[in-house]
Amino acid sequence: MLTKRVLIVDDDKNFLFSLKDGLSKYSDEIDLMVSTSAEEALALIERNIVDLIISDLRMERMDGLQLLTIVARKYPHVPFILMTAYGSPPIKEKAKRGGAIRYLEKPITIGELIGAIREVLNETETIMNVSIIDISQLIFLERKTCTLKIVSKENNKKGTLSFREGKLIYAKTDKFEGLEAAVEIFSWENVNIFIHENAVVEENENLIQNLEFIIIRALEQREVRAEEIKKIKTQTKETKIAFNYKKLVENLKEIPGYKAAAVFNINGEQVIFDALKDPDRVRKYFLQMTSLFVAGSRATEKTGAGQMGFIQTDSDMGKFLARRRKKFIIMILLGEDGNLALAKDALEEVSEKL
Protein backbone atom coordinates (compact mmCIF):
# COMPACT_ATOMS: atom_id res chain seq x y z
CA MET A 1 0.00 0.00 0.00
CA LEU A 2 1.43 3.39 -1.03
CA THR A 3 1.60 5.98 1.74
CA LYS A 4 0.32 9.50 1.14
CA ARG A 5 2.18 12.56 2.35
CA VAL A 6 0.10 14.80 4.62
CA LEU A 7 1.26 18.21 5.83
CA ILE A 8 -0.31 19.66 9.01
CA VAL A 9 0.25 23.34 9.78
CA ASP A 10 -0.44 24.92 13.18
CA ASP A 11 1.48 27.44 15.27
CA ASP A 12 0.40 25.70 18.49
CA LYS A 13 3.38 23.37 19.01
CA ASN A 14 1.72 21.34 21.77
CA PHE A 15 -1.38 20.73 19.67
CA LEU A 16 0.80 19.84 16.67
CA PHE A 17 2.82 17.38 18.76
CA SER A 18 -0.33 15.68 20.03
CA LEU A 19 -1.61 15.21 16.47
CA LYS A 20 1.74 13.86 15.32
CA ASP A 21 1.85 11.42 18.22
CA GLY A 22 -1.75 10.29 17.67
CA LEU A 23 -1.26 9.73 13.94
CA SER A 24 1.97 7.76 14.37
CA LYS A 25 -0.03 4.48 14.48
CA TYR A 26 -1.17 5.17 10.90
CA SER A 27 2.36 5.41 9.44
CA ASP A 28 1.51 2.61 7.00
CA GLU A 29 -1.11 4.92 5.43
CA ILE A 30 0.34 8.43 5.75
CA ASP A 31 3.78 10.00 5.70
CA LEU A 32 3.22 12.90 8.11
CA MET A 33 4.97 16.26 7.88
CA VAL A 34 4.33 19.13 10.31
CA SER A 35 4.99 22.85 10.26
CA THR A 36 4.54 25.61 12.82
CA SER A 37 4.03 28.41 10.27
CA ALA A 38 2.49 28.99 6.85
CA GLU A 39 5.80 30.33 5.54
CA GLU A 40 7.61 27.15 6.55
CA ALA A 41 4.79 25.08 5.07
CA LEU A 42 5.19 26.79 1.69
CA ALA A 43 8.91 26.03 1.72
CA LEU A 44 8.15 22.35 2.45
CA ILE A 45 5.61 22.21 -0.37
CA GLU A 46 8.21 23.67 -2.75
CA ARG A 47 10.63 20.82 -1.94
CA ASN A 48 8.25 17.90 -1.46
CA ILE A 49 5.30 16.22 -3.14
CA VAL A 50 2.35 16.74 -0.80
CA ASP A 51 -0.98 14.89 -1.17
CA LEU A 52 -2.99 16.83 1.44
CA ILE A 53 -2.59 20.00 3.50
CA ILE A 54 -4.36 20.55 6.81
CA SER A 55 -3.94 24.01 8.31
CA ASP A 56 -5.21 25.96 11.29
CA LEU A 57 -7.13 29.05 10.29
CA ARG A 58 -5.71 31.41 12.92
CA MET A 59 -1.93 31.76 12.93
CA GLU A 60 0.54 34.59 13.44
CA ARG A 61 1.94 36.46 10.45
CA MET A 62 0.49 34.47 7.53
CA ASP A 63 -2.78 32.78 8.50
CA GLY A 64 -4.49 29.70 7.12
CA LEU A 65 -6.67 31.74 4.79
CA GLN A 66 -3.66 33.28 3.06
CA LEU A 67 -1.99 29.88 2.86
CA LEU A 68 -5.15 28.44 1.30
CA THR A 69 -5.29 31.06 -1.47
CA ILE A 70 -1.60 30.59 -2.31
CA VAL A 71 -1.98 26.81 -2.47
CA ALA A 72 -5.12 27.17 -4.62
CA ARG A 73 -3.16 29.32 -7.10
CA LYS A 74 0.10 27.38 -7.20
CA TYR A 75 -0.95 23.83 -6.34
CA PRO A 76 -4.66 23.49 -7.26
CA HIS A 77 -4.34 19.68 -7.39
CA VAL A 78 -3.53 19.53 -3.65
CA PRO A 79 -6.65 19.26 -1.43
CA PHE A 80 -6.82 21.54 1.59
CA ILE A 81 -8.55 21.26 4.98
CA LEU A 82 -8.95 24.21 7.33
CA MET A 83 -9.10 23.62 11.10
CA THR A 84 -11.22 26.16 12.92
CA ALA A 85 -12.25 26.77 16.51
CA TYR A 86 -15.72 27.86 15.38
CA GLY A 87 -18.74 25.85 16.33
CA SER A 88 -21.00 28.20 14.44
CA PRO A 89 -23.82 27.06 12.16
CA PRO A 90 -22.23 28.65 9.03
CA ILE A 91 -19.04 26.59 9.42
CA LYS A 92 -20.92 23.39 10.24
CA GLU A 93 -23.17 23.90 7.21
CA LYS A 94 -20.16 24.48 4.97
CA ALA A 95 -18.51 21.32 6.30
CA LYS A 96 -21.60 19.31 5.34
CA ARG A 97 -21.78 20.82 1.86
CA GLY A 98 -18.11 20.17 1.12
CA GLY A 99 -16.70 21.94 -1.91
CA ALA A 100 -13.32 23.49 -2.51
CA ILE A 101 -12.77 24.35 1.17
CA ARG A 102 -13.18 21.63 3.76
CA TYR A 103 -13.38 22.24 7.49
CA LEU A 104 -12.52 20.43 10.70
CA GLU A 105 -13.77 21.86 13.96
CA LYS A 106 -11.45 22.05 16.96
CA PRO A 107 -11.10 20.30 19.31
CA ILE A 108 -10.63 17.28 17.07
CA THR A 109 -10.03 13.64 17.93
CA ILE A 110 -7.48 11.47 16.15
CA GLY A 111 -10.32 9.28 14.92
CA GLU A 112 -12.07 12.27 13.33
CA LEU A 113 -8.80 13.47 11.82
CA ILE A 114 -7.77 10.17 10.23
CA GLY A 115 -11.35 9.74 8.98
CA ALA A 116 -11.23 13.13 7.25
CA ILE A 117 -7.78 12.39 5.82
CA ARG A 118 -8.92 9.06 4.37
CA GLU A 119 -12.06 10.60 2.92
CA VAL A 120 -10.18 13.36 1.11
CA LEU A 121 -7.35 11.13 -0.12
CA ASN A 122 -9.86 8.65 -1.55
CA GLU A 123 -11.53 11.30 -3.68
CA THR A 124 -10.79 11.24 -7.40
CA GLU A 125 -11.54 14.94 -8.04
CA THR A 126 -8.74 16.98 -6.51
CA ILE A 127 -8.69 20.24 -8.50
CA MET A 128 -9.37 23.03 -6.02
CA ASN A 129 -11.27 26.10 -7.18
CA VAL A 130 -11.60 28.41 -4.19
CA SER A 131 -14.52 30.81 -4.60
CA ILE A 132 -14.69 34.47 -3.60
CA ILE A 133 -17.86 33.67 -1.67
CA ASP A 134 -16.14 31.07 0.54
CA ILE A 135 -13.15 33.33 1.22
CA SER A 136 -15.35 36.36 2.00
CA GLN A 137 -17.52 34.40 4.42
CA LEU A 138 -14.40 33.23 6.27
CA ILE A 139 -13.17 36.83 6.41
CA PHE A 140 -16.52 37.79 7.93
CA LEU A 141 -16.31 35.02 10.55
CA GLU A 142 -12.69 35.96 11.34
CA ARG A 143 -13.55 39.67 11.57
CA LYS A 144 -10.49 40.11 9.39
CA THR A 145 -9.18 43.39 7.96
CA CYS A 146 -7.66 42.84 4.52
CA THR A 147 -7.91 43.49 0.80
CA LEU A 148 -8.49 40.86 -1.86
CA LYS A 149 -7.01 41.37 -5.30
CA ILE A 150 -8.96 39.13 -7.66
CA VAL A 151 -8.17 38.11 -11.23
CA SER A 152 -10.65 36.20 -13.37
CA LYS A 153 -9.10 33.15 -15.04
CA GLU A 154 -11.65 33.33 -17.85
CA ASN A 155 -11.11 36.88 -19.15
CA ASN A 156 -8.32 38.35 -16.97
CA LYS A 157 -10.69 40.94 -15.46
CA LYS A 158 -9.34 42.43 -12.24
CA GLY A 159 -11.16 43.51 -9.10
CA THR A 160 -10.56 44.68 -5.55
CA LEU A 161 -12.52 43.93 -2.38
CA SER A 162 -11.61 45.60 0.90
CA PHE A 163 -12.78 44.37 4.32
CA ARG A 164 -12.57 46.01 7.72
CA GLU A 165 -13.19 43.73 10.70
CA GLY A 166 -15.00 41.31 8.43
CA LYS A 167 -17.28 43.88 6.79
CA LEU A 168 -17.03 44.64 3.08
CA ILE A 169 -16.33 48.36 2.80
CA TYR A 170 -15.04 48.87 -0.72
CA ALA A 171 -15.16 47.25 -4.16
CA LYS A 172 -13.75 48.25 -7.50
CA THR A 173 -13.34 46.85 -11.03
CA ASP A 174 -12.08 48.48 -14.21
CA LYS A 175 -15.63 49.68 -14.98
CA PHE A 176 -17.46 49.92 -11.66
CA GLU A 177 -17.04 51.01 -8.07
CA GLY A 178 -19.07 50.22 -4.96
CA LEU A 179 -22.08 47.90 -4.93
CA GLU A 180 -22.12 47.34 -8.70
CA ALA A 181 -18.45 46.35 -8.63
CA ALA A 182 -18.99 44.00 -5.67
CA VAL A 183 -21.84 42.16 -7.40
CA GLU A 184 -19.77 41.77 -10.57
CA ILE A 185 -16.71 40.43 -8.71
CA PHE A 186 -18.74 37.96 -6.67
CA SER A 187 -20.31 36.68 -9.91
CA TRP A 188 -16.88 35.58 -11.21
CA GLU A 189 -16.53 31.82 -10.83
CA ASN A 190 -12.93 30.86 -11.75
CA VAL A 191 -10.53 33.25 -10.10
CA ASN A 192 -7.10 33.71 -8.58
CA ILE A 193 -7.24 35.43 -5.18
CA PHE A 194 -4.43 37.43 -3.56
CA ILE A 195 -4.81 38.51 0.08
CA HIS A 196 -3.16 41.67 1.42
CA GLU A 197 -3.27 42.18 5.15
CA ASN A 198 -4.27 45.85 5.29
CA ALA A 199 -7.49 47.21 3.82
CA VAL A 200 -6.51 49.59 1.03
CA VAL A 201 -9.38 52.00 0.52
CA GLU A 202 -9.65 55.02 -1.75
CA GLU A 203 -10.45 58.45 -0.33
CA ASN A 204 -14.19 58.11 -0.95
CA GLU A 205 -14.73 55.06 1.19
CA ASN A 206 -18.15 53.59 0.56
CA LEU A 207 -19.81 51.25 3.01
CA ILE A 208 -21.37 48.46 0.97
CA GLN A 209 -24.61 46.68 1.74
CA ASN A 210 -25.04 43.37 3.50
CA LEU A 211 -22.71 40.63 2.19
CA GLU A 212 -25.54 38.12 1.89
CA PHE A 213 -27.49 40.55 -0.31
CA ILE A 214 -24.46 40.99 -2.59
CA ILE A 215 -23.92 37.23 -2.86
CA ILE A 216 -27.59 36.66 -3.81
CA ARG A 217 -27.35 39.37 -6.49
CA ALA A 218 -24.11 37.86 -7.79
CA LEU A 219 -25.56 34.36 -8.00
CA GLU A 220 -28.53 35.76 -9.93
CA GLN A 221 -26.08 37.45 -12.30
CA ARG A 222 -24.26 34.13 -12.77
CA GLU A 223 -27.53 32.46 -13.76
CA VAL A 224 -28.33 35.22 -16.25
CA ARG A 225 -24.84 34.96 -17.76
CA ALA A 226 -25.10 31.18 -17.97
CA GLU A 227 -28.41 31.50 -19.85
CA GLU A 228 -26.86 34.06 -22.22
CA ILE A 229 -23.89 31.78 -22.90
CA LYS A 230 -26.25 28.86 -23.50
CA LYS A 231 -28.30 30.97 -25.91
CA ILE A 232 -25.18 32.09 -27.80
CA LYS A 233 -23.96 28.50 -28.08
CA THR A 234 -27.36 27.39 -29.38
CA GLN A 235 -27.45 30.21 -31.93
CA THR A 236 -23.89 29.42 -33.03
CA LYS A 237 -24.76 25.74 -33.41
CA GLU A 238 -27.92 26.55 -35.40
CA THR A 239 -25.97 28.95 -37.64
CA LYS A 240 -23.37 26.26 -38.27
CA ILE A 241 -26.07 23.69 -39.06
CA ALA A 242 -27.78 26.09 -41.46
CA PHE A 243 -24.47 26.82 -43.20
CA ASN A 244 -23.72 23.10 -43.61
CA TYR A 245 -27.20 22.41 -44.96
CA LYS A 246 -26.91 25.30 -47.38
CA LYS A 247 -23.72 23.85 -48.86
CA LEU A 248 -25.27 20.40 -49.16
CA VAL A 249 -28.50 21.70 -50.70
CA GLU A 250 -26.33 23.34 -53.35
CA ASN A 251 -25.18 19.84 -54.30
CA LEU A 252 -28.80 18.69 -54.73
CA LYS A 253 -29.32 21.39 -57.34
CA GLU A 254 -27.00 19.45 -59.68
CA ILE A 255 -29.52 16.58 -59.97
CA PRO A 256 -31.35 16.46 -63.35
CA GLY A 257 -34.93 17.67 -63.03
CA TYR A 258 -34.25 19.65 -59.83
CA LYS A 259 -37.08 22.03 -58.85
CA ALA A 260 -36.58 22.74 -55.13
CA ALA A 261 -34.91 21.59 -51.92
CA ALA A 262 -35.25 22.48 -48.26
CA VAL A 263 -34.41 21.53 -44.71
CA PHE A 264 -37.02 21.92 -41.97
CA ASN A 265 -36.74 20.87 -38.33
CA ILE A 266 -39.38 18.58 -36.82
CA ASN A 267 -41.16 21.63 -35.36
CA GLY A 268 -41.87 22.88 -38.88
CA GLU A 269 -39.29 25.67 -38.75
CA GLN A 270 -37.37 26.39 -41.94
CA VAL A 271 -33.58 25.99 -41.79
CA ILE A 272 -32.78 26.41 -45.49
CA PHE A 273 -34.98 26.68 -48.60
CA ASP A 274 -34.40 26.97 -52.32
CA ALA A 275 -36.86 26.89 -55.23
CA LEU A 276 -36.32 27.65 -58.91
CA LYS A 277 -39.85 29.09 -59.24
CA ASP A 278 -43.14 29.58 -57.38
CA PRO A 279 -41.33 29.64 -53.97
CA ASP A 280 -44.41 30.45 -51.83
CA ARG A 281 -46.38 27.50 -53.17
CA VAL A 282 -43.38 25.15 -52.87
CA ARG A 283 -42.60 26.30 -49.32
CA LYS A 284 -46.21 25.64 -48.28
CA TYR A 285 -46.01 22.18 -49.85
CA PHE A 286 -42.75 21.37 -48.03
CA LEU A 287 -44.27 22.49 -44.74
CA GLN A 288 -47.29 20.21 -45.28
CA MET A 289 -45.00 17.28 -46.12
CA THR A 290 -42.93 17.98 -43.00
CA SER A 291 -46.08 17.72 -40.85
CA LEU A 292 -47.06 14.45 -42.58
CA PHE A 293 -43.53 13.06 -42.15
CA VAL A 294 -43.46 13.88 -38.42
CA ALA A 295 -46.96 12.44 -37.88
CA GLY A 296 -45.95 9.28 -39.73
CA SER A 297 -42.80 8.94 -37.63
CA ARG A 298 -44.79 9.24 -34.39
CA ALA A 299 -47.24 6.59 -35.59
CA THR A 300 -44.48 4.11 -36.46
CA GLU A 301 -42.75 4.77 -33.14
CA LYS A 302 -45.94 3.87 -31.26
CA THR A 303 -46.09 0.53 -33.07
CA GLY A 304 -42.51 -0.19 -32.09
CA ALA A 305 -41.22 0.07 -35.65
CA GLY A 306 -39.01 3.06 -34.86
CA GLN A 307 -38.78 6.40 -36.64
CA MET A 308 -39.75 6.74 -40.29
CA GLY A 309 -36.52 7.65 -42.03
CA PHE A 310 -37.44 8.08 -45.69
CA ILE A 311 -40.48 8.84 -47.87
CA GLN A 312 -41.03 9.13 -51.61
CA THR A 313 -44.22 10.21 -53.31
CA ASP A 314 -45.59 11.77 -56.51
CA SER A 315 -48.04 14.67 -56.66
CA ASP A 316 -49.10 17.46 -58.95
CA MET A 317 -46.08 19.35 -57.57
CA GLY A 318 -43.68 16.72 -58.87
CA LYS A 319 -41.61 13.88 -57.50
CA PHE A 320 -40.99 14.36 -53.76
CA LEU A 321 -38.32 12.67 -51.62
CA ALA A 322 -37.46 13.30 -47.96
CA ARG A 323 -34.92 11.91 -45.53
CA ARG A 324 -34.92 12.46 -41.77
CA ARG A 325 -31.65 13.08 -39.96
CA LYS A 326 -32.00 13.48 -36.17
CA LYS A 327 -34.25 16.54 -35.67
CA PHE A 328 -34.11 17.65 -39.30
CA ILE A 329 -35.89 16.64 -42.52
CA ILE A 330 -34.06 17.07 -45.85
CA MET A 331 -36.42 17.37 -48.84
CA ILE A 332 -36.04 17.55 -52.61
CA LEU A 333 -38.65 18.14 -55.32
CA LEU A 334 -38.04 17.00 -58.90
CA GLY A 335 -39.89 17.52 -62.16
CA GLU A 336 -41.32 14.70 -64.25
CA ASP A 337 -37.92 14.14 -65.88
CA GLY A 338 -36.14 14.05 -62.51
CA ASN A 339 -33.69 11.24 -61.77
CA LEU A 340 -35.08 9.53 -58.63
CA ALA A 341 -32.12 7.20 -58.21
CA LEU A 342 -29.63 10.07 -58.16
CA ALA A 343 -31.88 12.09 -55.84
CA LYS A 344 -32.18 9.22 -53.37
CA ASP A 345 -28.44 8.61 -53.39
CA ALA A 346 -27.83 12.34 -52.90
CA LEU A 347 -30.21 12.49 -49.90
CA GLU A 348 -28.42 9.54 -48.31
CA GLU A 349 -25.06 11.19 -48.87
CA VAL A 350 -26.28 14.50 -47.46
CA SER A 351 -27.73 12.86 -44.34
CA GLU A 352 -24.53 10.93 -43.69
CA LYS A 353 -22.46 14.11 -43.77
CA LEU A 354 -24.61 15.90 -41.17
**Share in helix:** 40-55%
The residue-averaged pLDDT reads: 83
What quaternary form is this? single chain
Determine and state the CATH class of the largest domain: Alpha Beta
Could you tell me the radius of gyration in angstroms?
32 Å
Strand order of the main beta sheet, please? 2-1-3-4-5
- Low-confidence blocks of residues: 94-99
Could you say which structural class the secondary elements and strand pairing correspond to?
A: alpha/beta
Our count of helices gives 10
| N-to-C order of helices and strands | EHEHEHEHEHHEEEHEHEEHEEEH
Number of strands: 14
Shape: elongated
Question: How would you describe this protein?
Answer:
- The protein is an alpha/beta fold and 354 residues long.
- The chain has 3 domains: 4-128, Response regulator (Rossmann fold), CATH 3.40.50; 133-225, no CATH class; 253-353, Dynein light chain 2a, cytoplasmic (Beta-Lactamase).
- Helices cover 43% and strands 25% of the residues.
- The protein contains 10 helices and 14 strands.
- It has a 5-stranded parallel beta sheet with strand order 2-1-3-4-5, with helices on both faces. The chain has a 5-stranded antiparallel beta sheet with strand order 11-10-14-13-12, with helices on both faces.
- The protein is elongated, with a radius of gyration of 32 Å.
